[in-house]
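Title: Comparing notes on inverse folding

I've been comparing how different people in this forum approach sequence design from structure. To keep things fair, I'm posting one structure and asking everyone to reply with a full sequence. Here's the target:
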């Protein structure tokens, strides 16, 4: 199985299965001299950790990360720092229940990757989906923590849940301070009881529901990314679409731009005391594949979790028609725990873009700050 690696200069390879003894990642290309401890990574893993509410999977995983390589501590550094060599991170699996999947060992769950994996490889790990499980995203979140170290304090990546099922937030009530005050990462406190009622109905029915996550990166300077085949927005879209259950990505205004006129969509500019300023951000902070200095924004649509208790029609490996229901512990709404995963993937793409930009242009920043320069 190939294609377990993404990135160019900041490269991440994930490994492991949902019900194996452990999973993790190898981060290659991290610059040396960056302070990095397990606690720096754990804080982000704790945001994604399962078992933290009745509307997410009840699998109890501490997701305690171990740094196996790539950092070194001596009296000159005052703490562990990256060495520039590959950083290997490992997370033990401690609460697998493989017996829950015995009934689907020979049958394909509708909406899952079971059939596609079997058609390609002729073999599949049916225990929780193996590599296709959302459990793999823990490794991505760990890698994202390293990426944030590369980006530094000047770049902030943050995400929020803006829709569960048919229920959207009121954008007029958007408050980033609310995101960490509720278990749904909602910037709109008033929508929380609506979501809870919807999720409770879905959970009792043994069904699932979809969601939309919105992310922004603040502090990204103009110039990151490359034209044509290295577009920053294209790489963001690819990274976000690689997340389990992601079925759609928008950059900036996204599909809504199709309803705008040219006058409405164009982000007009003016020269200010600190250089160019934009009067809107329909482009999502990227033009021609290159960052503009505006916040980089995107939205990701997650489908309803395919593991549901309602019997569904399917087939088995023998080519027979079967009726199938999925047992086990699953998220009624996978988008809730998708928030830290979306943040991590954006951080990894931006860290890679930063290193590539630095490698091509050095310390020179071609910002238009002096119109007479």
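Reply #1:
Here's my take.
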């Amino acid at each position: 199985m190939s294609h377990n690696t993404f990135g160019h200069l900041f490269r991440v390879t994930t490994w492991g299965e949902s019900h194996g003894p452990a999973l993790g990642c190898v981060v290659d290309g991290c610059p040396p001299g960056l302070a990095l401890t397990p606690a720096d990574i754990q804080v982000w893993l704790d945001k994604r950790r399962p078992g933290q509410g009745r509307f997410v999977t009840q699998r109890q995983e501490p997701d305690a990360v171990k740094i196996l390589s790539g950092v070194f501590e001596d009296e000159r550094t005052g703490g562990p720092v990256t060495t520039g060599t590959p950083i290997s991170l490992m997370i033990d699996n401690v609460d697998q229940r493989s017996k829950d999947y015995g009934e689907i060992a020979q049958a394909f769950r509708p909406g899952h990757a079971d059939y596609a994996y079997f058609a390609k490889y002729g073999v599949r790990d049916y225990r929780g989906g193996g590599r296709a499980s959302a459990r793999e995203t823990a490794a991505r979140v760990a890698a994202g923590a390293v990426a944030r170290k590369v980006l530094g304090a000047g770049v902030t990546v943050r995400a929020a849940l803006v829709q569960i099922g048919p229920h959207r937030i009121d954008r007029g009530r958007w408050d980033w301070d609310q995101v960490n005050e509720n278990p749904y990462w909602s910037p709109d406190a008033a929508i929380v009881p609506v979501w809870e009622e919807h999720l409770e109905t879905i959970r009792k029915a043994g069904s699932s529901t979809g969601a939309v996550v919105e992310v922004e990166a603040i502090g990204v300077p103009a110039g990151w990314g490359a034209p044509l085949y290295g577009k920053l927005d294209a790489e963001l879209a690819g990274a976000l679409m690689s997340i389990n259950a992601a079925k759609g990505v928008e950059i900036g205004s996204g599909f809504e731009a199709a309803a705008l006129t040219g006058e409405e969509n164009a982000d007009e500019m003016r020269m200010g005391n600190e250089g160019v300023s934009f009067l809107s951000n329909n482009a999502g902070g990227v033009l021609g594949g290159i960052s503009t200095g505006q916040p980089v924004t995107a939205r990701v649509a997650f489908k309803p979790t395919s593991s549901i208790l309602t019997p569904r029609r399917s087939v088995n490996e023998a080519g027979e028609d079967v009726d199938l229901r999925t047992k086990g512990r699953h998220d009624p709404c996978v988008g809730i725990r998708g928030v830290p995963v979306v943040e991590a993937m954006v951080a990894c793409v931006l860290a890679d873009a930063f290193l590539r930009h630095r490698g091509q242009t050095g310390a020179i920043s071609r910002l238009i700050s002096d119109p007479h320069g």
